[in-house]
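Hi support team,

I've been running sequence recovery on a batch of backbones for a student project. Most finish fine, but this one hangs at about 90% for roughly twenty minutes before it completes. I'm not sure whether the input is malformed or the queue is just slow. I've pasted the structure tokens below so you can try to reproduce it. Let me know if you need the job ID as well.

Thanks,
M.K.
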């Protein structure tokens, strides 16, 4: 909200400088976002009167003016403005004046000069040249009573300050100059001047029948007919100036009067062309399919959730938001109907946004407007209408149906002191509330306040505590250090930080991404197999309607974005929260009932595993590259991998990740179906792990260096093609003595050669469907050097176990 400081001081003028006044309002909860002068600095610009204006002898578009600047002799000034004529008073920049900077940023100095051979002793100015507005259509015409030769800054009060306030939604009572003055008087103790609104004498009998059918929409409706107005008169300069300094342009006298009173007292109103109303008015909810052309030129379609004012034929206005074009006042208007009403905030809230626009009236009504002043506002508007446009006022029709019930609110002084954090007495609290003109009933340690009609924000005890705090003064609150001891949170040695996980992935060549937790619903069905995702009641966009239960969709979206921009390689990861349904979760300070919110880490690799080099092409990233990255990330924990079926991953190229036998996530190629849908040239490899499992790490335990020589044995066993590496290793570990077998590793797989005709060439006794797997076994003992007999016994036991479990035989 913007307004001039001088208007505020007409209602309340405390002995404070402009800067001190702005600081007082800010510390009182009414933040002054900006304070700036009405006009930038300039000098030697005075009021001049054009006495003569003759055609320039050498230029068709220039005039030679004789101007009286109060210096005795007339000044000869050449001017090209179309409205330069004798008899008007305009701003005159004398020789030596400095005007506000132009586009080059440098002040513009006025010098004695010649234009087309005629000497010019100054310059006549437009509003744009003085930086008062963007209007440069002609000279700025001043009032006829402006004293000749007077400084233009004093005449137009250009040293006045414009205050821009940033008000929170609960401060609807501050959406007017009078409302701010009322708060300023409470904050400073300066007297509040409340001008008396004298009722206008009723000299006509015309009335308009009005029926309010929806008291839950409109609680009070007041109106009056004014006949015989002259709408062709000009709005007074003082009103145009004040509206301009409030950021409102002048439209017409009637519209200007309505806007002026709204800025003055905070009550929006509307003026209808009385002769364009068919029959009477009905205040009701809209009907589906009804249309209305608004004053801004838009045509909207209403329904039963939008309040309207209609006549006997059609809808004429959106209740509390904007009037209709059909009954708008114009230069031909002779009779008007002035309306001021109380619209329930709930009936106006959100309606403007439905039609993609907002109005000053709707902004005020949806926060709450004082319902007790509708008649006074109509009297004030009528007063200005008769004064400026003339006319005869009819009687006021005032219908009160249902007004907000003022419910008493109790303030406990002891609790107020505890919440505010400073000792307070009952007298201090009562004085603060009475300064706000609130009715106070004192009890034993309590104050009971019945909110006045303009205070919609006083509902609970905390509202009154806030009022006491800002009236006592935030600057007066004591600075009290916390009494609780501050101790650093020491991370257990068995856990590493999330930052270290990020660093580990970055060192592996991955880049971190941060994505929304809101995702597209079909991602959940396709990539997570989640048929019942958690839906948002009010999504920020239609394609972000559910909470994610997997990070994979977000990473695929990042990859798609980069691939569409011709990225040849991508390795990205994200650490984020997912949202799963879980009836076991109860509501706490950090949880929501029925929703499990674990942290996960996910990554994606796509493109070449290495950059292309001169000796050959780069190798494409595959499953085993990412598998190796996971083993490095989880180290020193040893990860194992087992086949898995996952809706997002390739059925034969995906595995679940296990640590100490517990499943912590999955890794695999993207399913071909989704690769085609996302239009990837080849499949990316993804992984997703529980973050808690990733940050866990075993505490290192010192082990003595072996004192004896290790003994190695290589065995090659023939097994069926279906036997996996994991099955072979598990069978060896089960039978081997853990105190002797220290390491084992697969170092060779051999399969027979298949000829073109499908026959299998004889190779080491391998039959079709068989393969040879060679394993290196490393034995050692802490007690003594192992003998051949001990090692051979261990090897025979292993071979026997493999034969029994896997049907294996030694390869000869």
């Amino acid at each position: 909200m913007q307004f001039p400081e001088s208007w505020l001081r007409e209602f309340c003028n405390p002995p404070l400088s402009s800067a001190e006044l702005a600081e007082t309002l800010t510390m009182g909860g009414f933040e002054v976002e900006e304070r700036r002068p009405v006009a930038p600095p300039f000098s030697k610009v005075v009021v001049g009167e054009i006495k003569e204006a003759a055609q320039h002898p050498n230029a068709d578009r220039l005039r030679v003016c004789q101007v009286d600047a109060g210096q005795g002799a007339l000044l000869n000034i050449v001017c090209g403005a179309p409205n330069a004529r004798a008899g008007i008073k305009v701003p005159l920049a004398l020789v030596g004046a400095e005007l506000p900077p132009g586009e080059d940023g440098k002040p513009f100095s006025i010098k004695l000069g010649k234009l087309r051979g005629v000497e010019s002793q100054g310059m006549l100015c437009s509003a744009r040249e003085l930086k008062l507005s963007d209007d440069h259509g002609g000279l700025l015409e001043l009032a006829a009573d402006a004293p000749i030769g007077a400084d233009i800054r004093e005449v137009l009060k250009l040293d006045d300050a414009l205050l821009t306030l940033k008000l929170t939604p609960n401060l609807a009572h501050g959406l007017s100059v009078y409302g701010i003055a009322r708060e300023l008087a409470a904050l400073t103790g300066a007297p509040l001047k409340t001008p008396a609104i004298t009722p206008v004498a009723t000299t006509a009998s015309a009335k308009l029948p009005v029926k309010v059918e929806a008291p839950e929409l409109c609680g009070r409706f007041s109106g009056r007919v004014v006949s015989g107005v002259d709408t062709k008169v000009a709005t007074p300069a003082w009103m145009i100036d004040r509206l301009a300094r409030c950021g409102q342009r002048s439209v017409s006298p009637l519209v200007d009067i309505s806007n002026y009173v709204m800025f003055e007292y905070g009550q929006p109103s509307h003026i209808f062309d009385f002769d364009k109303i068919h029959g009477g008015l009905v205040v009701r909810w809209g009907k589906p399919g009804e249309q209305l052309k608004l004053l801004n030129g838009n045509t909207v379609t209403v329904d039963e959730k939008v309040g309207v004012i209609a006549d006997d034929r059609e809808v004429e206005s959106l209740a509390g938001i904007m009037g209709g074009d059909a009954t708008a006042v114009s230069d031909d208007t002779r009779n008007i109907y002035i309306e001021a009403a109380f619209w329930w905030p709930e009936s106006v809230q959100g309606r403007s946004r439905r039609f993609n626009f907002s109005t000053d009236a709707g902004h005020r009504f949806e926060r709450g407007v004082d319902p007790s002043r509708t008649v006074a506002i109509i009297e004030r508007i009528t007063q200005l209408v008769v004064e400026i446009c003339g006319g005869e006022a009819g009687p006021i029709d005032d219908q009160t149906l249902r007004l907000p019930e003022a419910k008493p609110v109790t303030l406990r002084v002891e609790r107020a002191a505890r919440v505010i954090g400073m000792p307070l007495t009952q007298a201090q609290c009562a004085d603060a509330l009475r300064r706000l003109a609130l009715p106070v009933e004192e009890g034993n340690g309590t104050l009971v306040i019945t909110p006045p009609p303009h205070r919609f924000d006083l509902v609970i005890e905390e509202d009154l505590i806030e009022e006491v705090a800002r009236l006592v003064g935030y600057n007066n609150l004591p600075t009290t250090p916390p009494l609780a001891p501050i101790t650093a949170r020491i991370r257990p040695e068995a856990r590493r930080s999330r930052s270290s996980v990020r660093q580990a992935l970055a060192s592996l060549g991955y880049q971190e991404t941060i994505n929304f937790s809101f995702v597209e619903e079909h991602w959940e069905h396709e990539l997570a197999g989640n048929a019942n995702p958690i839906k948002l009641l009010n999504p920020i966009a239609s394609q972000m309607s559910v909470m994610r239960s997997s990070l994979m969709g977000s990473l695929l979206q990042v990859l798609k974005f980069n691939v569409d921009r011709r990225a040849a390689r991508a390795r990205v990861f994200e650490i984020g929260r997912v949202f799963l349904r879980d009836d076991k979760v109860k509501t706490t300070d950090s949880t929501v009932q029925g929703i499990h919110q674990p942290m996960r880490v996910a990554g994606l690799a796509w493109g070449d595993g290495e950059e292309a080099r001169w000796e050959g092409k780069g190798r494409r990233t595959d499953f085993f590259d990412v598998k190796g990255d996971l083993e490095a990330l989880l180290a020193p924990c040893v990860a194992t991998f087992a086949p898995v079926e996952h809706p997002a991953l390739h059925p034969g190229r995906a595995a679940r990740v296990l640590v100490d036998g517990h499943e912590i996530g999955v890794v695999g190629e993207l399913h071909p179906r989704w690769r085609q849908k996302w239009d990837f040239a080849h499949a990316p490899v993804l992984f997703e792990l529980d973050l808690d499992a990733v940050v866990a790490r075993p505490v290192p335990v010192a082990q003595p260096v072996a004192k004896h020589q290790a003994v190695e044995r290589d065995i090659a066993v023939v097994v069926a093609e279906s036997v996996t590496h994991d099955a072979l290793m598990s069978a060896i570990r089960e039978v081997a003595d853990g105190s002797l077998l220290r390491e084992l590793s697969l170092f060779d797989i051999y399969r027979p050669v298949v000829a073109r005709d499908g026959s299998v060439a004889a190779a080491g006794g391998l039959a079709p469907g068989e393969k040879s797997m060679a394993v290196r076994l490393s034995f050692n003992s802490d007690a003594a050097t192992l003998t051949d007999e001990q090692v051979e016994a261990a090897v025979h036991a292993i071979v026997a176990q493999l034969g029994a479990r896997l049907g294996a035989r030694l390869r000869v």
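--
Follow-up from support: It reproduced on our side and the slowdown came from queue contention, not your input. The chain has a mean pLDDT of 92. No action needed from you.
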